[in-house]
Specification:
The chain is an alpha+beta fold and about 425 residues long. It folds into 3 domains: about 100 residues, GIY-YIG endonuclease (3-Layer(aba) Sandwich), CATH 3.40.1440.10; about 100 residues, no CATH class; about 160 residues, Nucleotidyltransferase, domain 5, CATH 3.30.420. The protein has 13 helices and 15 strands. Strands 8, 9, 10, 11, 12, 13, 14 and 15 form an 8-stranded mixed beta sheet that branches. It has a 4-stranded mixed beta sheet with strand order 2-1-3-7, sandwiched between helices. The protein has a 3-stranded antiparallel beta sheet with strand order 5-4-6, covered by helices on one side. It is elongated and about 95 Å long.
Length: about 425
């Protein structure tokens, strides 16, 4: 479905990146008009452009009225916490792109403050990486001088040789042509890409008419780079159930980044040990698939080493037996193993996965401090208010509940 096919109704829309992660959520009186406005040919300033260039899919859900859309948007932002809903509303002391003025040959540079009244500032950019990308892209399409202070040179510098500077210091470009590039860059930073490409197309045709084919090819490449910033975007209507899935999968994406996994974790298994002074020792395993408990796959273990009082040895036994069985039956190995306890328990589980040649499995455990987990001996912080933390706590509670209930059952059987 194309963006033009989105209905003219109230609702909410979600911008998703290439990994399927929601990066922005918005409400609209008219979904068609609001979403189209984000992609209008002359509607993007440099800061919003950093977001739009990442969008690959637009999910939307119609609502009965604007009020319902407002409520739904609020719920989604609180639940998913999209990156750009936070960044685009935060105007702290973040960097700007400054287009200088009052100089014979203006330059584009980074500035933390609007100190020069004559300069033009674009931003702010809450994400420094986005700012650097915007600057690099702008300089590649519309190269200006790189020197902090313009001075005459006999020979052009390396930047000119790699075609990233027109070299006004050696007279390779006259001021009139240079200022044309400045104006084009200004239009680009203001988001007037539609008007800009039309202007460039006219220049390209003039070069062709004058048989200046090399110059025409250079302008053609500029147009191609500008259009290449905005790949095709698909739009799709989603149900409320689909929105629940999107909300649910977001903590898995967070865990993917936090634990440096190659893909989004599909299966997480949680383990716990329960006993009374090492008697009637049992272990539990709970399995979560795509963030939801798969209770039919839960397993209970009677610890075989009854004589030991070492919780870590018990945990190693249970984790080893579980993974060994999965390997024998050639079933899906968990992407993440969660163990109840602290740093010692995480290291014990990691030792088992290493011994079995399953280093790809990530192991984590809860620290005593709220909002902290251990992974490979390191402390990793997770905001306690996020869905990621709630998922981890739920796995912890499920593993503890399941182990405790089995231990109580065994203990109650004693005469």
């Amino acid at each position: 479905m194309k963006i033009s096919d989105i209905p003219d109704k109230p609702g909410v829309y979600l911008f998703m990146d290439s990994a399927g992660k929601v990066i922005y959520a918005g409400k609209a009186v008219s979904l068609k008009k609001r979403v189209r406005s984000h992609f209008g040919k002359d509607s993007l300033d440099s800061r919003h452009m950093a977001m739009i260039t990442r969008v690959r899919t637009v999910d939307y859900i119609p609502t009965r009225d604007e009020k319902e859309a407002l409520v739904l948007e609020d719920q989604l932002i609180k639940s998913i916490q999209p990156k750009y809903n936070i960044l685009l509303r935060d105007d702290k002391t973040y960097p700007y792109l400054e287009l200088t003025s009052g100089e014979e040959f203006p330059a584009l540079k980074v500035s933390r403050r609007k100190e020069n009244p004559g300069s033009e500032y674009y931003g702010p950019f809450p994400n420094v990486r986005d700012m650097r990308k915007a600057k690099k892209t702008a300089e590649k399409i519309f190269p200006l001088r790189k020197c902090e202070a313009l001075r005459e040179r006999k020979r052009p510098c390396l930047n000119h040789q790699i075609e990233s500077c027109p070299s006004p210091c050696t007279g390779r470009v006259n001021r009139e042509r240079y200022l044309e590039t400045v104006e084009e860059l200004r239009m680009f930073l203001q988001g007037k890409t539609g008007t800009l490409t039309e202007k460039l197309a006219e220049r390209m045709n003039r070069f062709k008419e004058n048989l200046e084919f090399e110059k025409a090819a250079q302008v053609r490449d500029q147009i191609a780079r500008i259009k290449g910033l905005f790949p095709a975007v698909n739009a799709r209507k989603v149900s409320r159930e689909k929105l629940r899935i999107i909300t649910r999968i977001d903590p898995l994406l967070h865990l993917k980044e936090l634990l440096e996994l190659e893909g989004v974790p599909e299966v997480i298994e949680g383990f716990d040990i329960s006993h009374t002074s090492s008697r009637q020792a049992v272990g539990s395993m709970v399995r979560f698939v795509n963030g939801k408990p798969d209770k039919s796959s839960y397993r209970r273990f009677k610890v075989r080493q009854e004589e030991t009082s070492d919780d870590l040895s018990m945990l190693k036994e249970v984790v080893y037996r579980r993974l060994k069985r999965l390997m024998k039956e050639k079933k899906k190995i968990p992407d993440i193993i969660f163990v109840d306890g602290g740093k010692g328990q995480e290291r014990a589980a990691a030792a088992v996965t290493a011994a079995l040649g399953l280093e790809g499995i990530r192991t984590i455990s809860l620290a005593k401090q709220k909002g902290v987990v251990y992974h490979r001996g390191r402390r990793l912080g997770i905001d306690p208010g996020t869905e990621t933390w709630r998922l981890i706590k739920r796995i912890d509670e499920e593993a503890h509940r399941f182990a405790h209930s089995y231990h109580t059952e065994r203990r109650d059987r004693l005469p």
